[in-house]
Amino acid sequence: MTKISDKNIFTATWSYDKAPESTDHVKIKDQYELFINGDFIKPDKGKYFNTINPADNKVISKIAEASSTDVDKAVLAAKNAFKKWSALSGKERGKYIFRIARLIQERAREFAVIESIDGGKPIRESRDIDIPLAANHFFYYAGWADKLSYAFPNRKVKPIGVAGQIIPWNFPLLMAAWKLAPALATGNTVVLKPAETTPLTALKLAEIIKESGLPDGVVNIVTGAGQTGAALVHHPGIDKIAFTGSTAVGKYIQNAIAGTSKKLTLELGGKGANIIFEDAAIDQAVEGIVNAIFFNQGHVCCAGSRLFVQESVADLVIDKLKHRMNSLLVGDPLDKNTDIGAINSKKQLQTIKAYIKIGLSEGGEIYQPECILPKGGNWCPPTLFLNVSQSHRIVQEEIFGPVLAIQTFRTVDEVIEKANNTPFGLSAGVWTEKGAKIFHLTQKLNAGVVWANTFNKFDASSPFGGYKESGFGREGGLHGLKPYVKFD
Ligand code: NAP
Ligand code: MG
Questions:
Q1: 383-412 residue pLDDT tens
Q2: Ligand in nearest proximity to the CA of 232
């Protein structure tokens, strides 16, 4: 129900009543074990770490911490399972993957709530984006499992072997799906390492995998911190590493496996340019700016964190953007009205705050709408910076939070040069009514994905990945099969 806090309907300010998502149906255990060889087993050293709810910083569950001995066990299980799994027909493999997709759909609401509790993202996003897209990835790759000869015509493909997969905390279940589905479809077995702050949905997925009857050892899930990931990277039994995370850790991994026969794909950071031309549909573009930078609290590798507005419409766009920011609701991730949830961890909040300080000290002009932030959790209001230039650190470095750096431009050539002037090359957006301008820019921008008159749209059938320090290899679509096969 809405409330009017002023008697005059024309001058009234509206506020929303709470609309909390029900948590009655959600089962979260006090303690989770490792998922190895089809069983939930205790960690070798008996160590556990806490996973926290970033909206109140309270402990949700204790999670097993995998040591290198546990990683050994998981890799061995995957190796043993590989023979049988890779020998199954594509049609049979597809059935299991399809079953996993269906089971995610059946328990979608439970997954969405857990994703929001563990990671802080608004329930609207986990419910409408993360979980359905995760199911879609399994459906999509289930379809490819028996059609690999169409994916690679006139070539005989084989699976690579055991894939070590390491994922970040910003889209926990979705990243697990991006990694697992193509690996399984092509006949590989897997050891997956979820992020330390968001392990719960991967462990729920382990329950589903068990329920699906997938043969033991085909998927193993080892929770832990960076060290667990490093043990996986260094393990001699691993044939391929698929990593999504920061550029710094990506570089470390590339170094670590140099000189070995391990294959590698890296999906790393970004600093996406969102470009608004004067002929764009301005109101839609403003919505696009909001979606590009404030979706998932800005914890998005492909976020449009650098905004370029053509000078002639800059004042108009910035006015409208500020106005729109005033209506964004920051708060409880489990409230269906929430636009911006909790920052994923205390550490990430510190990083964002440090960048805001840097932005101010470098002379940036800040705007944050007035909003009352809840107490107890990790919160950051939507933030924009004006009066910045290419050399500012907040323009060059990935902040991974709801912080937008705005610059203006006059000509197409100028904006292409500015947009490409970054070590990253993951995403970009172009807003204009001219198709020719769109095609011109999509060719010139060094970005793996360029959205036109939209932003942050994902689909299982479309490839995703970066250039330059944003990594290499593609996930999603037909292209996403290739990193998991070798040719005869
Ligand atoms: P991160 O610190 O690099 O961590 C990513 C994963 O690697 C986590 O599971 C982490 O474990 C693990 N890890 C940490 N140190 C490791 C090491 N030495 N060896 C092996 N694994 C190690 O990144 P993050 O902070 O979680 O995620 C944010 C970053 O991911 C951003 O830069 C973002 O742009 C990027 N990202 C990229 C994409 C893409 O598709 N290009 C998608 C999403 C996110 P812990 O969790 O325990 O630290
Ligand atoms: Mg957590």
A1: 999 999 999 999 999 999 999 999 999 999
A2: 1
Which ligand neighbours the alpha carbon of 63 most closely?
A: 2
Please say if 267 is a catalytic residue.
Answer: yes
HEC profile of 411-424: CHHHHHHHHHCCCC
- How many angstroms is it from 117 CA to the middle of ligand 2? 7
What structural domains and CATH numbers belong to the chain?
31-268+470-487 (3.40.605.10), 273-459 (3.40.309.10)
Q: Are strands 365-367 and 263-267 parallel, antiparallel or unpaired?
A: unpaired
Identify the CA nearest to 411 among candidates 453, 440, 443.
440
Bridge partners (DSSP) of residue 36 are 39
pLDDT value of residue 8 = 60
Q: Which stretches in the chain have pLDDT values below 50? A: 1-6
pLDDT digits (tens, 9 = 90+) for 233-262: 999 999 999 999 999 999 999 999 999 999
C-alpha–C-alpha distance, residues 69 and 264, integer Å: 23
Query: Can you tell me which atom of ligand 1 is nearest the CA of 198?
Result: 46
Cross-strand bridge partners of residue 40: 35
Neighbours of 210 (CB within 10 A): 15
**Burial category of 137 from C-beta neighbours within 10 Å (exposed 0-12, middle 13-18, buried 19 and up):** buried
**Gap between the Cα atoms of 447 and 470, Å rounded:** 9
